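To: structure subgroup
Subject: Chain for Friday's discussion

All,

I'm putting the inputs and outputs inline so they're searchable in the archive.
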Amino acid sequence: MTAVRRLAPLLGIGVIILYCLAPFYWMVVSSFRRTSDIFDMSVLPSPWSLENYQAVFSGQNQFTRALLNSLVVAGVTTACTVLLGTLAGYALARLDFRFKNLVLALVIATSMFPGISLVVPLLKLFSEIGWIDSYQAMIVPSMSFALPLAVWNLTTFFRQLPVELEEAATVDGCTRGQAFRKVILPIALPGVFTTTIIVFVVAWNEFVIALSMVSKPEMQTATVRISQFAGFAGYDSPFGTQMAAGVIVTVPLVIAVLLFQRWIISGLTSGGVK
């Protein structure tokens, strides 16, 4: 019984890991199959082929430009969201004013609206102000979805930091702003970094807004461009090419999480103990 109790958690973890990694593994394997072998059910491709990756970067797919567009949209969204979220989170954590809890509730409530319900009013608004087929038409809505998450996460983190740190800095001659920049912000870097990674992943994977607000191929993001890949005959589904593009889009995020996992875990847990 003792051996069973020891192995049961490991077995459960193994099942969860297998369940989570199986789709990604099959996507990677399928990306290395030839088009004629795409429906082969073997565990490994035979023979291995790079034709899908060559097709991804062919001129007709414009995938390189799509990757650049995704990087611009996700990068600007992340930078603006983290900046505003840090300031708002610190203000909500430290300032005392009426209805503060209501403000926090409204902030988190806005993230519960399904994105598809906002497409029509945003499409009408952006059409009237001439934002269709522009970066800002994708960045501003993405910020509206990511900002509540950033504000809520950073507010919770700042609340765990001792107020005495700012009081000590004030006694030493710092203003409130200097105390925030020189004392609180360096300590809060793990939380800010964690929020940055989460927001970037959310912005990088965004699909509905990018699909609705942009029609020009040269302005589409990678997620939208993958969904519009055309087959060799124009009617067949290019499963292999889409699998290869999925690997290209996913692998950088996986590598980033693996490289910075200590920072991420530190940011999620460091505010939990005073």
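Points worth raising on Friday:
The mean pLDDT is 85.
The two ends are 39 Å apart (CA to CA).

D.
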